[in-house]
TrEMBL record:
Presence of keyword Calcium: no
UniProt domain HTH tetR-type: residue ranges: 15-75
Domain of life: Bacteria
SUPFAM superfamilies, A to Z: Homeodomain-like, Tetracyclin repressor-like, C-terminal domain
PROSITE patterns found in the cross-reference section: HTH_TETR_2
Tagged with keyword Transcription regulation: yes
Keywords of the record: DNA-binding, Transcription, Transcription regulation
Descriptive protein name: HTH tetR-type domain-containing protein
DNA-binding region(s) from the entry: 38-57
Length: 202
């Protein structure tokens, strides 16, 4: 059995409070960016005192790093046995990353990563997980002869992943919920459009 996390005082930490704080931190960062990201603002949003935050994290850099680690998940490589279904899964995961609960934080991370060295690793991990999963999907499809051996992995993935990102970035804030509701249908339509020009003929 793993040990219960403790703060500097040795008292057991409350996972519910930790979750509330990291959720609030992700929301504040997503809404305000790094320059307006403060311990005071996060504490108010989470409904806790600043002391509760400082017992857990020494500064706002460490708090944001913890929030991003807790709230932003990487992209998983899911092998369904079908290139179409694999690519749809990939597209849907990318959409959820940027349209879900912590989507604004994920988008803001792309802007502020260069300014905040403590969070650069989180962006790199997100990007790397996407690239590795995407390459694996296309290479499996080529091995199964679902795609022509000369299919450009880079171009195909630029079309799918780039299409998803453009769709997300072009969405006005007031339409985010509407776009999120139709995300699954969009992912399928995008993948079908891309595959129509790349799939090998029987």
């Amino acid at each position: 059995m793993s040990a219960t996390p403790h703060g500097p005082s040795g008292r057991p930490r409350d996972p519910e409070v930790d979750a509330r704080i990291t959720r609030a931190a992700a929301e504040v960062f997503g809404e305000n960016g790094w320059h307006r990201f403060t311990i005071d603002t996060v504490a108010r949003r989470a409904g806790v005192g600043k002391a509760s935050i400082y017992l857990r994290w020494p500064n706002k850099e460490a708090l944001l790093a913890a929030a991003l680690a807790a709230r932003l998940n990487g992209i998983e490589d899911i092998d369904t046995g079908s290139v179409r279904d694999d690519l749809i899964s990939l597209a849907r995961q990318i959409q959820r990353s940027y349209l879900g609960e912590s989507g604004r934080a994920a988008l803001q991370l792309r802007v502020d990563a260069q300014r905040v060295p403590e969070v650069q690793d989180h962006l790199h991990r997100l990007q790397e997980s996407q690239v590795l999963a995407a390459r694996a999907i296309v290479r499996r499809a080529i091995a199964r002869r679902e795609l022509h051996p000369q299919t450009s992995v880079t171009l195909l993935l630029d079309c799918v992943c780039g299409g998803v990102m453009n769709h997300v970035l072009a969405t006005p804030p007031h339409l985010r919920d509407q776009v999120a509701a139709g995300a699954d249908d969009y992912a399928a339509a995008l993948v079908d459009f891309v595959l129509a020009s790349t799939q090998s003929k029987p």
